[in-house]
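Morning!

This is the sequence you dropped in the shared folder:
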Amino acid sequence: MPFVLALLGSLRAALRTRTDLAFENLALRQQLALLRRRSKRPRFGRLDRAFWVWLSNRWAGWRGALHVVRPETVIRWHRQGFRAFWNWKSRRGRTGRPPVGSELAELVRTMALANPLWGAPRIHGELLKLGFNVSQRSVARLMPRRVKPPSQPWRTFLHNHISDLASVDFFVVPTATFRALFVFVVLLHHRRRIAHFNVTDSPTAAWTAQQIVEAFPEDSVPCYLLRDRDSIYGAEFRRRVRGMGAAEVLTARRSPWQNPFAERVIGTTRRELLDHVILLNEGHLRRRLRSYLRYYHGSRTHLALDKDAPEPRTVEPPERGRIVALPVVGGLHHRYVRSAA
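The structure's back. Tokens below.
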């Protein structure tokens, strides 16, 4: 078997041209010289890389003689050398646009600040009439950055329409017997006042539409009604709201932060009432909510109302007497007043 391999190697060498043998011999010698260097891992210097890049361009069989690195590495070296050559060549002469003088740059900034409605084409036209040879792109680069007004965020929308905006939402309350009760809340944004609430164990679109009618009798309908995209607000609900003259504003999907006032009221109700009581049934939940809403509207101060209640409270000076604590919501909260007694 070794004899057959040696014979095949001799025949292969005889069939190859003298140039191929010379290139192969040169490639093998270069790799042997690289391996003889005193290093644990062969390190290719710039001359070594240049040699293999040159050899790959001169000899088609260079891949078969390469054993130290992969052929892809040599191709990467060639591309790096190509980029380095053209970077060096492009830097030899003067490149890019001619520099813009400080006088012209200052003139462009002055024009842009004095004429906020002018863009780069308008200022470029004025400069051409003044004899300046400059491109429009250079003018745009020299202009000061202008902060473009962003699209109207939800906070701006809510602030601009707060007196004509109401929002609705549902939240779930478990009972002592593990039933799920649904509470429907209608909130007026202007004074954070809860206009209406009701409780049911099986909400429907017809029931929800009836709650809107009860919340806004006669001509008290707001201009905008903010809600989420829950399927409970069906065709009957939308038809009833449209007939009342209100426009629906829908939040994006899975974006409760776009209905922040209703979410805040629900969270406040949970933290200040529902997390501290065990509800027995619908009647019990309604009574607890009515008790809490009396406190919520008449006594509880709100940050958004400058520390006032939805039903404004008068300031009681010290001359009125000592401070008395009145328990409300079954003692969960207190209202503090001054008493002359």
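Headline: The longest helix spans residues 71-90.

More detail when I'm at my desk.
O.
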